[in-house]
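SAMPLE LOG
Freezer: B-3
Tube label: C17
Construct: single chain, 684 aa
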Amino acid sequence: MRQLTPVDPHDSPAGRLAPVVPRLAGIAYGGDYNPEQWPAEVWREDVALMREAGVNLVSVGIFAWAMLEPAPGRYDFGWLDRVLELLDRAGIGVDLGTPTAAPPPWFLHRNPQARPVTRDGRVLGGGARQSFCPSSPAYADAAAAITERLARRYAGHPALMLWHAHNEYGGANAFCYCPVSAAAFRQWLRARYGTLEALNEAWGTAFWSQRYGDWAEIEPPVTAPTAVNPAQELDFYRFSADAHLANFRRERDILHRLSPGTPVTTNFMLANCKNIDYWRWAGELDLISNDHYLRAERADNHIELAMCADLTRSVAGGRPWLLLEHSTGAVNWQPRNIAKRPGELRRNSLAHLARGADGIMFFQWRASRSGAEKFHSAMLPHGGTGTRIWRDVVDLGATVRGLADLRGSRVVADAAVLWDWESWWALELDWRPSVDVTFRERVEAYYERLWRAHLTVDFAHPAASLDAYPLVIAPSLYLTTPAAAQNLRRYVAGGGTLVVSYFSGIVDGNDAVHPGGYPGALRELLGLSVEEFLPLRAGETVRLNGSAPDGGATADVWAERVVPAGAAVEWSYLDGPAAGLPAVTRHRYGRGTAWYVSTRLSGTDLDGVLARAYADAGVVPPAGVPDAVELVRRRGQGVEYLIAINHGECDARLPGAGLEMTTGTTVAGHLVVPAGEVRVLRTP
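STRUCTURE (predicted):
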């Protein structure tokens, strides 16, 4: 057993980290403010109501390009000057947006070649946001020009707290297949490979007569008669993400040059955006910001929220981060836009705060009367100040002000889960052994069991340092580079406990199968080989002689013909195509242990494996905590905060002593968390 206890992997002697918005007092609270949608007489009312709600930061100008530059080279900043003056007088800070996510109509009219093109060749129109090719030189010039004008005018403005570049890069226009993008893709490939020989080798173009003899022969992976070269598709994912990153860097560099000292961010869509490798972006931002919208129809959507918040904190390197958008109630773009129930707004917001956010922001401040998002909830609904949502917003603002002491404290993690966007891309390309094997499904399955065990998770890149964690889980690591495999071997050999799920370690960064058989890069570490994948039919299940109360476990979707080569067999298949063969194995490797789960276990059946892994790692889940109670610890200098969120219908009673910060009461012995409520216990 590794002699480690759950630790804070980001501990430092200073005790607290720098605030996420340095010039802002307290925790950020507010949302997107779009005054350009309203007559000027409404602005003063807005500012007065913001003060009533406790708002101290608003995002302004994000979609205002047509109002700021109504014609090419003709600018109108007068209205924005007046808005910023009103906000500054009220003591409300500004997250000032560059409006480059929504080019005005004149841009596409003058630059039709900048319209995005889909994989099957359809040219997309305007009338929406992100209606541009990410590789367009015309877009780059226009975006740089408006960014520079804004920076020159508002650098040093007393209301300016941070810059907000663009909006949700890689959202609606993640990929473009136009001739401009095709040329940029070829240029990107030249820089990556240097020679056609190297590209042909990496892409395996000997298959299907795809060998290239001239760079001009290469095109993006457009719609073809059958499956496209997966290595080509992977590189197009990388190229497309880099095109967006280049656009961000361009704006960031302008803002840094003309507005030095003011942080620059952009709003990520972590966990819910497949198209951007946010590990690559993390070091480019002055602070990490995220948008999160509840998957309203999911019964366990609060667990998915927790996962996204943990991933955001992890991409931020454990530092505080900013929740730039979430909703007060229903959104408008899901199939069925379910309204939040009483107390849900408070629980959702404070769950983000618990998991490392130092700011709670919404889309948007005042509900729009027109446009595609007019039915999206807001801090100030269409019904005004007589509504429950408004009362909840005001109440939450008071709570957030009372929790200012949490700012700069750090979340304490118990385990790490590996997350790799490139593996996500590769796993879900065409012609895999089973359409039922998807990236997020396994990540969420393992995360949910850790959440229900009241353990807090950091996410990590497979090649990142893992030494601070007693337990690491790899739920979906189909693409495993040699560097990642070596990192995992080093981690386990040093005393770590690793749990690996099926169909991991299979291919390298070019989607080429690792030599020597499955599970490729992880074969030595796991002490076994997989002779054959045995996907199951839709609805088919297999039984295992697991450790559930009835002595067995049930799995579905996947099985394998596992041959141990040093690993001990813990569970076996009782029936199905792998009957009598190993299903779950445990391998001593150096001073640590590597577990392998060759089938899809879920729920309490998966708990049976994880309980054994917890024991190997020395991780002890807290006992006696109700299943519906979410527990997270944040640690500051000489102080610890326990945030307890009760998602259940019965009051919960937890051991604890200290100051309960939401009510201001002293707790001695037991903390009572009412049904549907949140409590924050501060202890030395």
